[in-house]
Amino acid sequence: MIGKAADTLGWRPKVDIDKGLEATIAYFSLSMETNSRDATVASIDTARAARARLPRRRQGRVQPTPAAQAKQEDM
Protein backbone atom coordinates (compact mmCIF):
# COMPACT_ATOMS: atom_id res chain seq x y z
CA MET A 1 0.00 0.00 0.00
CA ILE A 2 2.88 2.41 0.77
CA GLY A 3 4.35 1.73 -2.67
CA LYS A 4 1.05 2.65 -4.30
CA ALA A 5 0.91 5.93 -2.36
CA ALA A 6 4.50 6.67 -3.32
CA ASP A 7 3.83 5.96 -7.00
CA THR A 8 0.55 7.86 -7.16
CA LEU A 9 1.19 10.77 -4.82
CA GLY A 10 4.93 10.93 -4.45
CA TRP A 11 4.39 10.33 -0.72
CA ARG A 12 6.43 8.21 1.67
CA PRO A 13 5.96 7.93 5.45
CA LYS A 14 8.49 9.75 7.61
CA VAL A 15 8.00 7.35 10.54
CA ASP A 16 8.28 3.59 10.19
CA ILE A 17 5.36 1.41 11.27
CA ASP A 18 6.96 0.20 14.52
CA LYS A 19 7.80 3.71 15.76
CA GLY A 20 4.42 5.03 14.63
CA LEU A 21 2.53 2.31 16.48
CA GLU A 22 4.69 2.80 19.57
CA ALA A 23 3.93 6.54 19.61
CA THR A 24 0.22 5.93 18.99
CA ILE A 25 -0.05 3.37 21.78
CA ALA A 26 1.86 5.64 24.18
CA TYR A 27 -0.44 8.55 23.34
CA PHE A 28 -3.65 6.59 23.90
CA SER A 29 -2.27 4.95 27.05
CA LEU A 30 -1.52 8.38 28.52
CA SER A 31 -4.88 9.68 27.38
CA MET A 32 -6.78 6.78 28.99
CA GLU A 33 -4.72 6.69 32.21
CA THR A 34 -4.81 10.40 32.87
CA ASN A 35 -7.68 12.53 31.89
CA SER A 36 -5.51 15.47 32.72
CA ARG A 37 -4.02 18.61 31.31
CA ASP A 38 -0.80 16.72 30.42
CA ALA A 39 -2.64 14.50 27.94
CA THR A 40 -4.36 17.52 26.40
CA VAL A 41 -1.09 19.44 26.06
CA ALA A 42 0.61 16.39 24.49
CA SER A 43 -2.27 16.09 22.01
CA ILE A 44 -2.05 19.77 21.04
CA ASP A 45 1.73 19.61 20.65
CA THR A 46 1.42 16.50 18.46
CA ALA A 47 -1.24 18.14 16.28
CA ARG A 48 0.85 21.29 15.86
CA ALA A 49 3.93 19.29 14.90
CA ALA A 50 1.92 17.28 12.36
CA ARG A 51 0.34 20.42 10.90
CA ALA A 52 3.77 22.01 10.48
CA ARG A 53 4.80 19.09 8.24
CA LEU A 54 1.80 19.38 5.92
CA PRO A 55 2.30 20.78 2.41
CA ARG A 56 1.47 24.46 2.13
CA ARG A 57 -1.89 25.32 0.62
CA ARG A 58 -2.37 27.80 -2.18
CA GLN A 59 -5.85 29.03 -3.13
CA GLY A 60 -7.45 26.28 -1.04
CA ARG A 61 -5.64 23.44 -2.83
CA VAL A 62 -2.74 21.29 -1.74
CA GLN A 63 0.21 21.64 -4.06
CA PRO A 64 1.40 18.28 -5.42
CA THR A 65 4.89 17.13 -4.58
CA PRO A 66 7.54 17.51 -7.30
CA ALA A 67 7.46 13.73 -7.85
CA ALA A 68 3.69 13.77 -8.33
CA GLN A 69 3.95 16.76 -10.70
CA ALA A 70 6.59 15.00 -12.80
CA LYS A 71 4.44 11.88 -13.01
CA GLN A 72 1.43 13.92 -14.16
CA GLU A 73 3.53 15.66 -16.81
CA ASP A 74 4.73 12.28 -18.12
CA MET A 75 1.13 11.15 -18.71
- Structural class determined from secondary elements: mainly alpha
Q: Gap between N and C termini, in Å?
A: 22 Å
Mean pLDDT: 78
Number of domains: 1
Uncertain residue ranges? none
What is the strand and helix layout of this fold?
Elements: H1 2-9, H2 17-33, H3 37-52, E1 57-58, E2 61-62, H4 66-74
Antiparallel strand pairs: 1-2
Describe this protein's structure.
The chain has one domain (15-69). A hairpin with a 2-residue loop joins strand 1 and strand 2. The model has no long low-confidence stretch (mean pLDDT 78). The longest helix has 17 residues, at 17-33. It has 75 residues and is mainly alpha-helical. Helix content is 67%, strand content 5%.
Précis, in short:
By secondary structure, the chain is mainly alpha-helical. Helix content is 67%, strand content 5%.
Please tag this protein with its features.
75 residues, mainly alpha, elongated
